[in-house]
Amino acid sequence: MANTPVEAVEAVEAVEPQRRDGEEGRRPSIPDLLIVAAGVALVLVAAFEGWARLDRGENIFVFFPPLLAWWIPHVGPGTVLAPIVAVAVVAYGPTLAARMRWSRLVLAAWAASFAWIVSLALIDGWQNGIVVRLEEGQEYLSDLPRVTGLGQMLSIFSDHILTKGQDPDQTFFWTTHVGAHPPGAFGVFVVLDRIGLSGGGPAGLFVILIGASAAAATAVTLRALGAGERSAGGTNLGEDLARRALPFAVLFPGAVWIGVSADGMFAGVVAWGVALVALAATRYGTRALACAVGGGMVLVFSLYLSYGLVLAGLFPLVVVAVTRRWRVLLPALAGGALVVGAFTAAGFWWLDGFEKVQIIYAASIAQDRPYEYFVYANLAAVLFALGPAVLAGLRRLAMHPRAVPVGATLLVAAAVVAVLLADASGMSKAEVERIWLPFGVWIVLACGMIPRRQVRGWLAVQAVLAIAVNSLLVMPW
User: Fold this and answer.
1) How far is 437 from 443, CA to CA, in rounded Å?
2) CA gap 252, 458 in Å, rounded
3) What is the pLDDT of residues 170-190, one digit of tens each?
């Protein structure tokens, strides 16, 4: 077993899987460039077709295809701060990720991710970039005056999902984001308001803080799953991959939408739920039991944040299947049952809410968004959140799936499958650059396959993409 993180990294680099291709140089390989070119081509096709549909007068409600955004170049405090954070991560991130002690590295990654997300948001300024994001007309905070407390909100929630057009007897109906999600998401902001963290500023920073933690949570999961798979030098292969992937998880282009959209918070919650299950499956005793119950509670609670997070159930299934620790299922299910029981006792039945949301979705702008276009435009949109480095990492992972712990390969594969299933369902037409963030934070782990000498170059590309998107476009989140 390796004695220090430095020895661990040196050991894995001695058998660096990418060298099987002879691609240890500083320049990207031709196959990597080709897969990135294919991604760019998909984006261009979706953009040109989207503009053509807009020119024909089609109301696809996407103003900068394939993104829901407006072309408005602008600057703000983040115009200075974001490049500083990016340069620091590019210059020092890979080295620190290799050398820092694990506990400190996890906290440092969380802090760096938070700094990156906030700096990007501040390109729009404090007010426009953070404060008003959750206060605008169809966002969560606008419905706070309608509730007196968490219990009261849960007891009436289902009665006000449908709009007046669908239920003429409605006294009022929830705004778009509140009604289109289960009450867990709105409940978070109700609680924040009741404990004194009122307004868009505190709510926005809270969302960013939880969203930023996804980088740390995915790393914790990889390390736990890799405990049983070690290199010839005795190093934890999952930890090695996590250390390689962490700088990319920090400079995640999807940070543009984590700051500030509730979907970014959802990504962090799901990631920690999976991490707890992974810890439970690789430990014994009271701590394992506590992690299993906690993981089940967090993951089931995520279902009360967004109906679409049912697909995130693939992640804990991967964990249990890889570790073969089926024993964690019972306490995890028990923890989840506590959450279901609490919401049900308070007056909200998940299936009832889901049924009503399907009705309002069918009557929404989704009916004007053609499936045959968005089935591929969605994939183009999510590429903005993933970045070109992820495409290169995915290619390498597909070529050498056994070069990393099987759990890591399957987690990335599960995230890709979740995206494809969500896309095929037609329940997400556009806006997936934020909606699929809970899946994107797992796909970015494939960047751990990028050769060591190319890491800084690819990191720079990821950072430039995020800064460009946030500087040239204005988005409603």
Assistant:
1) 10
2) 11
3) 778 999 899 999 999 999 999
Contacts of 352 (CB under 8 A, 6+ apart): 158
Q: Which long-range contacts (CB under 8 A, 24 or more apart) does 275-280 make?
A: 275/217, 275/218, 275/220, 275/221, 275/224, 277/316, 277/319, 277/320, 277/328, 277/332, 278/220, 278/221, 278/224, 278/225, 278/319, 278/323, 278/407, 279/220, 279/224, 280/325, 280/328, 280/331, 280/332
Which pLDDT value is given to residue 218?
A: 98
Give the Cα-Cα-Cα angle 74, 212, 151 (nearest 5 degrees): 105
Residue 318 has φ and ψ, to the nearest 5°, of -60, -45
The closest alpha carbon to 477, from 40, 120, 107, belongs to: 120
Q: Which range among 8-12, 231-235, 247-251, 394-398 shows the weakest confidence by mean pLDDT? A: 8-12
pLDDT in tens, 407-454: 999 999 999 999 999 999 999 899 999 999 999 999 999 999 999 999
